[in-house]
Write a structure and sequence with these properties.
The chain is an all-alpha fold and 119 residues long. It has a domain of 74 residues. The protein has 5 helices and no strands. Helix 4 runs antiparallel to helix 5.
């Protein structure tokens, strides 16, 4: 089956490259975040900047990868951020923090504004 026919069968996929990159990035977030070396790797307050950058970039990757309504592309990184914070409940030495989720929200909103004004 050629690539054009595959893309016609998946009209919600804009770019398989960015889709794979996004899935790889989210997988890395959960796998690497569960490792002992991840505890305190980025000191406060720079961890908030890291959250903003990570989830802002995730929004841009998902926006490039998927042809979905904007609200759904905005919500998806925020749900992943919430899942990451929940995941930290079960990791020794890690602490879930609502401020991390808020930082991710700020990053997503800034990336969405940048996307809007770029187009």
């Amino acid at each position: 089956m050629d690539a054009e026919r595959m893309m016609a069968n998946q009209p919600w996929v804009r770019s398989r490259f960015w889709l794979v990159a996004g899935l790889f990035g989210v997988s890395a977030l959960f796998v690497l975040g569960a490792q002992p070396f991840a505890v305190g790797i980025i000191p406060s307050p720079f961890d908030k900047l890291a959250h903003a950058l990570l989830f802002g970039c995730l929004f841009l990757v998902l926006d490039s990868a998927l042809a979905l309504p904007l609200w759904l592309v905005l919500v998806t990184p925020l749900l992943i951020s919430a899942a990451d914070e929940f995941h930290q409940l079960f990791l020794p030495g890690r602490q879930p923090d609502l401020a991390d989720w808020w930082a991710g929200l700020c990053g997503v909103l800034l990336a969405a504004c940048w996307r809007h004004f770029r187009r």
